[in-house]
Amino acid sequence: AYVRGGDYRLTSWWQPTEERVRLDAYFIDKFEVTNREYKEFINAGGYLKRQFWKYPFVKDGKSLTWEEAMLTFKDRTGLPGPRNWSSQDFPEGKTEHPVTDVTWYEAAAYAAFRGKQLPTIFQWEKAARGARAVSGAAQLMPWSFMAETETVDHRANFKGQGSMPVASLEFGMSPYGCYHMAGNVSEWCLNERASGFMTGGGSW
């Protein structure tokens, strides 16, 4: 999805800064990364190729070598991959669901594999909200302001029963045509803060 450039200031209630930044125009994926797409990264040797892992590894305040870090990214059977996979394969029936249980480092490596990078929190939120700002007590969602009596069942996955396919609930898309920027799964952003790397959106 194409997002116009311009000045942007975060408006979320948990905003880490009130700084206004200048964004160049950019593209952002319309959909969350699917299990099918992430498996392509694994099948292409993504966990074996250092060129995709561009950032220093830190765990519990300690720096890790590439070899040490790779030992921590294991699925249930001890093979490289998301924590909830087995034998480098995703749960049955979840082909088009978003990949979950990956660290920020894995998400960043996947993005590099695709020739992309994780969005900054400024890029993520602008793609989710457009240029609109929150006013008063109204709650601004990707699709617009939400009335107190409105149900979100046809707009966002907040049912607490697990993820949904990434192309579902088109009535909840953002002004730029991005899906599931509220609900479904939280999404990694490029920025780091004292407590760890930042995420956008909210999960089911």
Protein topology:
Layout: E1 2-3, E2 6-9, E3 20-23, E4 26-27, H1 35-43, E5 57-59, E6 62-64, H2 66-70, H3 104-113, H4 121-129, E7 139-141, E8 144-146, E9 187-193, E10 196-200
Antiparallel strand pairs: 1-4, 2-3, 5-6, 7-8, 9-10
Structural category:
alpha+beta
Query: Widest sheet: strand order?
Result: 1-4
CA-CA gap between termini: 23 Å
Q: What radius of gyration results from the CA coordinates?
A: 18 Å
Strand content: 15-25%
Kindly report the average pLDDT value: 91
Instruction: Find the count of extended strands (DSSP E, 2+ residues).
Output: 10
Largest sheet: 2 strands, antiparallel
Overall helicity: 10-25%
Uncertain residue ranges: none
**Annotation field: number of helices:** 4
Order of helices and strands: EEEEHEEHHHEEEE
What is the 3D shape? globular
